[in-house]
Sequence to fold (521 residues):
Amino acid sequence: MDQLSWQPEIDELARRRELASAMGGPEGVARQRSRGKLTVRERISSLADAGSFREFMPLMGTAAYEGPELKEFTPKGSVEGLCTIDGRKAVVTGGDFTVRGGSGGGSHGGLGMEMPANRRALEWRVPYVRLLDAAGGSVRSFEDLGRTYLPDGNSFTAPDVQLLRVVPVVSAVLGSVAGLPAVNACMAHFNLMVKDLSQLFPGGPPVVKAALGYDISKEDLGGAEMHTRQSGVIDNLVESEEEAFATIRRFLSYLPSSVWELPPRGDTSDDTSRRDESLLSIVPRNRRRAYNMRTIIESVVDGGSFFEIAPGYGRARVTGLARFNGYPVGVMANNPAFAGGSTDVAAGEKVIRLIRLCDTFHLPMISFADEPGFMVGLDSEKAGIERAGARMVIATCDSKMPWATVVVGQLYGVAGQCQHRPTGMFQRFAWPSARWGSMHIEGGASAAYRREIDNSPDPEATRQRIEARLQAIASPFRTAEATGQEIIDPRETRPLLCEFVEGAQRIVASQLGPTSMPYLP
Fold:
């Protein structure tokens, strides 16, 4: 061999790459697959465009030597790097549960440490995707270090906070996730779990047993039912890992690579002048009958473009992303099929997150309103409905992105007020089926005319007569006479919204960059 050649070192490089690609070894890989889970490298290959993944720090791990010879090597408990997703650059990081549950394996770093994945996504202004399958900290690390340590993780999680303000961040929970990775699951603009595969908690059943003295399964403690329907910690539930990767790709397709760019425009083949005849009769004249708000959304957005977020939580509101003439927008709507569409604390939290998402990434907001008001009653008071309402008002007034509201049905009280913004590019349309005011005539009349009703010979007849008198002046046309409110044929909704979103592109182009309202998950 040529004495000037570096072939021996190249051979050693190939050997070390092979050791790293083996992850936790045959036993660890077999254990992962026995649980019905893909390995971290299979996951990244399924998410990224074929052949596009380039790994960061591929040789990092824990090594044992005899003299100069490498005898043992355990790779770090994660795999991370740069790839393309549908042709756009992104940083992806995945926990490797085959290596000490994704929590160990020489990942502590030190002097001269290369830039971590979250910092690279921040500095390079590209989306950041976490494929979470990790147990967080482990007492095993105490033996590795020869000591314990003071928790100081914010020194390396601070970039995760900054990321939320500049690039899209997605977290996928793909196993039992605890500790810091559980918090990272929430430090995202969108997250998901896989049915029967994912659980999420700060500490698992053994920790609960030690702290509180009772036994509980991982699924009951932090499974999909808990987090997609009760806690609202996780947005969407999918059936498989393959569906998870497809869902991540779809979510990212609506967003720009960073706040300094416009999002990509999608397919424009759906006719912008399309008029759906069914909209003329979709809202029942009998206001006690519910109807499907999702049908209205689907009928006016670009065909097949509606991507719903958190469908199982805060069900009085529908939130998601869609397109008009190819342009991405945020979409929110009251859901009259659940609690009459009355906004409760959970629904309000969904709305606030969507407003902040759209404002951060400069997506126009399209709202379909049928708002009877904030949820009333003892349970709502216990949940703190007033504070939630205050946060909605603040988020609405602080937002800057273009916003159009279509008043489909009711619009009452402060919750109705949150469907309007007094500044910036704002447009409000109303259907003839709309009714509005500070509060409902039914119930409101009993309070406002209480003395007159109580002192009458026939209180019930008096109440009905007063309500009928008020209903006669509740026509939206009377409001239009006084205020100029635009009343539209429901079939005009898509053409008008397409026109609004087209015009909004000039505004969003002038708003590029970080917003004054930091995104909070």
User: Anything to note?
Assistant: Residues 7-253 form a domain with the 2-enoyl-CoA Hydratase; Chain A, domain 1 fold (CATH 3.90.226.10). The CA atoms of residues 376 and 412 lie 13 Å apart. The chain has 21 helices and 19 strands.
